Amino acid sequence: xxxxxxxxxxxxxxxxxxxxxxxxxxxxxxxxxxxxxxxxxxxxxxxxxxxxxxxxxxxxxxxxxxxxxxxxxxxxxxxxxxxxxxxxxxxxxxxxxxxxxxxxxxxxxxxxxxxxxxxxxxxxxxxxxxxxxxxxxxxxxxxxxxxxxxxxxxxxxxxxxxxxxxxxxxxxxxxxxxxxxxxxxxxxxxxxxxxxxxxxxxxxxxxxxxxxxxxxxxxxxxxxxxxxxxxxxxxxxxxxxxxxxxxxxxxxxxx
Length: 255
Prior knowledge:
Elements: H1 2-23, H2 30-37, H3 41-48, H4 51-71, H5 79-96, H6 98-106, H7 115-133, H8 141-160, H9 171-183, H10 202-216, H11 223-254
Helix pairs in contact: 1-2, 3-4, 4-6, 4-7, 5-6, 5-7, 5-8, 5-9, 7-8, 7-10, 8-9, 10-11
C-alpha cells in the first residue's frame, strides 16, 4: 500500500512539474494537477495535506533536479573558477526553468526547513570556504555567501520578470564578475615582475586563518576560546573588507 502511494505521489509531482513548466505558477491548481495526473482531488489532499503542501513538495522536486546538476560539477584546484561555473549553472537553471525558480526562490522556499534549499546554500558556502582557504577571500565566508546568493537571486529574478526580447544577455556575466571583484583578491605583478601576495590585507588573512582553523581545529584553545577567536576573525574580515571597499570607491571618484 505504501509503495502504491509513493508511485502515485511521483506521478502527481511529474504532472505538476509539467504544468509548472508549460503554464507557470498560475497553472498549478488542485483541479488541474489531479486531472493531469489522472487522480481525484481528494488524493492530492491525502498525499500532500493541502495546496501549500503540494507546492512545497513541488519545490523540493525542483531542488532535487537542481542539486543533481550542481553536484555533477567537477571540483578543480581553482575555487574561484569553480565559483564562476557554479554561478553560471545557477543562472542557467533559473532561466531554463523560470516557473520552478520562482516557486523555489521567489517565494522563499529555499529557507526554513526545506533540505534541498538549505543544501544549495551549503554548497555555495563550501565553495567560498575553499576560496578563503586559498587566501583569495577578502571577507568572511558567511558574508560572502550571503552576498553572492543575494546577487545571483536578484539577477535571475530580474531577468525572469523581463520579457525575453528585452533582456540584457550580458547581465549575468557582468554581475558575476562584479561580485567576484567585491569578494576576492587578484594576483598583481610587482616592480620586479614577481607576483605579489594576493592575500596582503588583514581582511583576506583573517578569512584565510578562520578557514584554516575550522579545518585543522584549535586544539590549544578551549571551545569557548575557539568560538571567540572565530568571531573576532569574522569581524576583522568584514570590517576590513568594508574599509577597503570604501577606499577603492573614493579612489575611483577622485580619478
